[in-house]
From TrEMBL:
One of its GO terms (cellular component) is cytosol. It is found in: Cytoplasm. This is tRNA (guanine-N(1)-)-methyltransferase. Specifically methylates guanosine-37 in various tRNAs.
Length: 224
């Protein structure tokens, strides 16, 4: 998978992709992540990429020219399965969407900033608009980092155990059940006997019951 990210703050995306699972995916050649600075296509020598809002109002809007220049250049090199704009008014990111995106080969992610991007960019290039939650961030960079992590960890060969991602919360519309490791007893709290029994069918039954109970208590909306 190749992911190209367009941003006016590329420095914000250095650390998230230089560690842990996303780095492992890149080291294995399973994912390529390229971060592109919108200011490379600024409209003047001062690095301007934004302008005032037509009609008045507070805030600045990212201009069409820097974004269009990158979009056209990238699309001239290869076809893209999705061109995603990270925005608070987009579709909320949920596990089924991450699953679908993990099947794509080439993705562009556009990080908004200031008051957002010129609407004509959305109408001309964007195929998917995604929000990471009902709150507002200073820009789309952190949202892009979240989306990349959610998608890349699903690629075959990235995780050490292929079943690990399949047992995550939300994969079956349930939260994950409680998990335990050694020691079997700590400060008077013992691991449930069923998990030490070696009876795999019973263990899976217990896990499903626990996942269902946890979902009912914490996220009943997932069961609707």
């Amino acid at each position: 998978m190749r992911i190209d990210i367009l941003t006016c703050l590329p420095e914000l995306l250095v650390s998230p992709f230089a560690h842990s699972i996303v780095k492992r995916a890149q080291d294995k050649g399973l994912a390529e992540i390229h971060v592109h600075d919108l200011r490379q296509h600024a409209i003047n020598k001062h690095g301007q990429i934004d302008d005032y809002v037509f009609g008045g109002g507070a805030g600045m809007v990212l201009r069409v020219e820097p974004i269009a220049a990158w979009m056209d250049a990238l699309q001239a090199e290869r076809p893209y399965d999705a061109i995603i704009y990270l925005t608070p008014d987009g579709q909320t990111l949920r596990q089924p969407l991450a699953n679908r995106l993990s099947l794509f080969q080439n993705i562009i992610m556009l990080c908004g900033h200031y008051k957002g991007i010129d609407e004509r960019i959305r109408q001309t290039y964007i195929t998917h608009e995604i929000s990471v939650g009902d709150y507002v961030l200073s820009g789309g960079e952190l949202g892009a980092a979240i989306l990349v992590d959610a998608v890349v960890r699903l690629l075959p060969g990235v995780l050490g155990n292929e079943e690990s991602a399949l047992s995550d919360s939300f994969q079956d519309d349930l939260l994950a059940p409680p998990v335990y490791t050694r020691p079997a007893e700590w400060r008077g709290q013992a691991v449930p006997d069923i998990l030490l029994s070696g009876n795999t069918p019973k263990i899976e039954e217990w896990r499903h019951e626990q996942a269902l109970a946890r979902t009912q208590a914490r996220r009943p909306d997932l069961l609707l």
